[in-house]
Amino acid sequence: MQYGFLGPETTFTHQALLQALAAMPEDAADDAPVLQPFSSVATATTSLVEGEIDALMAPIENSVEGGVSGTLDILAATKRITIVAEQVVPVTFVLAARPGTSLADVRAVASHTHAQAQVQGWIRAHLPDAAVEPASSTAAAARELALADVEDATAASRAAICSPLAAEHYGLEVLAEGIEDNRGAQTRFVLITRNHRIPPRTGADKTTLVVHLAHNRAGALLEALELFNANGVNLSRIESRPIGDALGRYSFSIDVEGHLEDRRVANALRALHRVCPVILFLGSYPRADGIRPDVSSVTADTAYDEAHAWVDALSEMLTPGDDPQI
Amino acid sequence: MQYGFLGPETTFTHQALLQALAAMPEDAADDAPVLQPFSSVATATTSLVEGEIDALMAPIENSVEGGVSGTLDILAATKRITIVAEQVVPVTFVLAARPGTSLADVRAVASHTHAQAQVQGWIRAHLPDAAVEPASSTAAAARELALADVEDATAASRAAICSPLAAEHYGLEVLAEGIEDNRGAQTRFVLITRNHRIPPRTGADKTTLVVHLAHNRAGALLEALELFNANGVNLSRIESRPIGDALGRYSFSIDVEGHLEDRRVANALRALHRVCPVILFLGSYPRADGIRPDVSSVTADTAYDEAHAWVDALSEMLTPGDDPQI
Amino acid sequence: MQYGFLGPETTFTHQALLQALAAMPEDAADDAPVLQPFSSVATATTSLVEGEIDALMAPIENSVEGGVSGTLDILAATKRITIVAEQVVPVTFVLAARPGTSLADVRAVASHTHAQAQVQGWIRAHLPDAAVEPASSTAAAARELALADVEDATAASRAAICSPLAAEHYGLEVLAEGIEDNRGAQTRFVLITRNHRIPPRTGADKTTLVVHLAHNRAGALLEALELFNANGVNLSRIESRPIGDALGRYSFSIDVEGHLEDRRVANALRALHRVCPVILFLGSYPRADGIRPDVSSVTADTAYDEAHAWVDALSEMLTPGDDPQI
Amino acid sequence: MQYGFLGPETTFTHQALLQALAAMPEDAADDAPVLQPFSSVATATTSLVEGEIDALMAPIENSVEGGVSGTLDILAATKRITIVAEQVVPVTFVLAARPGTSLADVRAVASHTHAQAQVQGWIRAHLPDAAVEPASSTAAAARELALADVEDATAASRAAICSPLAAEHYGLEVLAEGIEDNRGAQTRFVLITRNHRIPPRTGADKTTLVVHLAHNRAGALLEALELFNANGVNLSRIESRPIGDALGRYSFSIDVEGHLEDRRVANALRALHRVCPVILFLGSYPRADGIRPDVSSVTADTAYDEAHAWVDALSEMLTPGDDPQI
User: Fold this and answer.
1) Domain containing C105: what range?
2) Which pLDDT value is given to residue C213?
3) Of B4, B148, B200, C69, which shows the fewest CB atoms inside 10 Å?
4) Can you give the CATH number for the domain in which A14 is found?
5) Are residues D53 and D171 in the same domain?
6) Can you give the pTM of this predicted structure?
7) CB B240 to CB C245 under 8 A?
8) How far is D237 from chain C (nearest CA, A)?
9) Mutate which of D213, D240, D256, D289 to test chain A, going by most A C-beta atoms within 10 A?
10) What pLDDT score was predicted for residue B319?
11) Please, what's the largest Cα pairwise distance for chain D?
């Protein structure tokens, strides 16, 4: 199996892919998977569609920046690719050094400018006298330190600010973790495959949709939300994206709790299909947090099945019987 | 064919039944139908269920008094009987006399007290000097006048206040019609058969339901109405009836525009079946007024069919394909 | 103070009035109140409006029969009379006899036919050999027994089926209580005064309304219910009543949880006033059951007051300030 | 008056500001306004708040890219600044040259890479043989051409791709207009002032809001939309923005049709204030398109005023009157 991801190596997307592989059942992950970094989601998607890779990990939503437009737009525009899994990765940084270096030894810290900005409070507090040096990426900072010549006397007094994965990948020791000033930021990633494949429901699933609303009808968004609500389907995310043809025209990227196999989800999708000029199904897949939604008895599968059976029984009465027609 | 109706003969119910027979296609009404008056809807229903009669005409709603409780309750309580047609009859009275009598000849007017009360304005204006005499029913007033001995000299100066049908039935001449003080009152009647039979849809149909609401959930009526609304199903009547077990507990007798064969109606019924502890289907049948509802493109049959086809196509992707499972 | 009630004496309405008087604060009930039976709610209302009585107790809703049309229609049609209290009375019967009579002594039981029908199961089980004798009312049965000549030897072997109040009123002894076959039936009564008076809120109140819906707008009932819902106002009763001008045209008699002084109720009333062609306020008054509704923080008085203050503050910005106008 | 705009000169924002000034009543625009370009909306906002400029024009929404995050976030985060006007500017390009140059003369075309990409279809069709040369901005391309030395023989065979305003500003002649490949793109700009000032309503107004939804309540967005709908307030734009504290947490930037002085808008704002943990009012101002919304009689100002008067009259009944208290 060939897996693509938004590179370079040791990015948070890489981390998300490793998490996804670790979570797979053993037999599915039996063969040694091949991981391949791509410079953009667009090029990776082309490789996926052309069969050069089998799946692709891409960021879809960040807790600070919101939806990742590039990924959302590619998902909406590419036929027959679907999301089959999600992973959430904390946006967190570590201070890493060569084995044997202690925090007190550190005289210089290297990282990418962007990452430096996110940890400056910690640096000021814990390494006020250290020199802060630029690197082309957090991965590069880690790699350079790892590859430093054994003769290089300064190597034992240098550290890198990088992702936990980069530290591990390059054999560095973590001197401090969670050193970002704003704790709790997360990015959500999705694993995408071709051929419109939908994994079976687990009971703790999510379904991703794109809908356009009828622009000539007032209250179209209200109407769409009522159709989810009428089927007991909660939204875990709703984001607007411009359609592009006029000011004020938006499509909505939506995650709902539940799986296409859940009757309540399928019924809500049918209802939306009626009222929305465009509706795209981007996948049903297990939730990263494994939380099972609280499903009311009136929107459980059995409630839908019994309702169907009732109307089917009524409909049989439509056939003229022995009674003379009145 | 044996038809029951709430008697005696020449009542408005009798009139409704004659209207219904006249409206039937010729081959359905080929044989001479037999019409049988009953003293109550309850006894007529027993005859219907036991197969002694084939259909039954009963009043269901009056524009002044509202729902006819007796009929509504029997419909709700009796299994496998359904409404197959409706008729609307104006509640109107005529002044009728023996052929040859003119309005100027009339010295005495007979009717039932109830009918007299409804025409007293007209009598005061047009027959201020006439004696007003009681009769046991409007039909009895008409019949007595019709059967008056040919030797009875007063017969030519007497008139009866009765239904148009009674005048016709007893061979009287109508001297004035529409003489009721409050014009425009109407009663709606339904034709009921056994064996849960549903006539085919005509495009201008009505469906009658009884629903109980979940009493432990706030906004249950709102929720039920939203489910009709979400399917573009209009209500032409909604009436409350006490369930009987506690104060404030009501069921609702509902007429909606449309037929069980309309996808939007069937879908609304399924939705209600999920959320209502009790839902009874009492029939789909042609509207008396023949008005076709204005159906939006998003609730037309094709919209439901296309939505089903779309979700069915998605669901086929659930079967594992050639792709290795990720 | 003069109180009217739907008579005769010892009816359940009489019982409701006695309950209401017992529940009044001592100083309000200081003077000996005068209680006066009326033969109909209509005549009692005329007396109320003309100032001959100060208040009137009338039945409004029965758990088996539903709304009491006569009372509902008079409340809707009479200006400036309002409901100021409610009482709930169980519809229950007792077997009563002269003091000294035991159940084993009873050979004959008298009551009104209607009451007999409701206790026949109990009579069959406990007095299978007793003669059942008709009376003109349950009160009459009790009174006749109470007034029986002391010489009448059969008096000691006779019993009456009547209301608990009738037994007490006529000095009879209760041999068995709660003997009705269907337990739990209740009737709700309202105390009505003139001059549009509204008692202060207690926190456990009810408000009674009549609304007509705009007949030319689809979903009018749904819209009205949404306006209650948007203000967190629960309905404890909703009943339809024909408006009278056409088939399918209904007004709704509604009880909501809360008092006119509750911001959420006042706001819902304002919203309904906008969309309903007719809305009648029939009173805010303490609930008989004393249950306080569960009010969310978003519909508490403070939430409305803060929202008002916010918009008022914004509106002050409408006055041109020091800034030059752009 | 000092006006800031997102520079450099001749940007579409500059164009929007000129449009706004041209639209002002004469007396308001009497003095010669001073226009000052800023390198970012953030620095311009600081100048506005500190009183160095009086108003600021900034882009808020583009028909292709959607909301302009920078402006939306600054509006949400800055106290007491409000939108007082909007302008819509078509995103369109012209081919401009020195006076006397004709299309047939053009041998070289200069522009910014970004603009070149948007007009390449037109260039291929109309100037297939022209050399395409880069410039640092579309304004720079125009300026360089305008300032070319009079001795420069090539100047008469060169053209610039720039905004219509740049051509006019630098005294160039427009050889072709509307040459962008995708026609119809527009950007919407808002004029912002300090001191929370609200211009009077014109009848064709817009109100801009930011709301956060209660994240622990299902259907919070649905509830918010219902509150607009219940007051007949249409949304002309709704966009999500991450709140930043967790995945799936969004605020909404909303434009509604109407003005704070419209009772329906004020009432909807009060209702939202109750249910939303955060609601920001960013201004009521005239719509650029001048379209007056279709206001139903049930949401007209008079409907709100009459509803208020009715409840106020009812509330007067709360004061104990002459009637003894029951």
Assistant:
1) 94-177
2) 87
3) B200
4) 3.40.190.10
5) no
6) 0.88
7) no
8) 22
9) D240
10) 54
11) 105
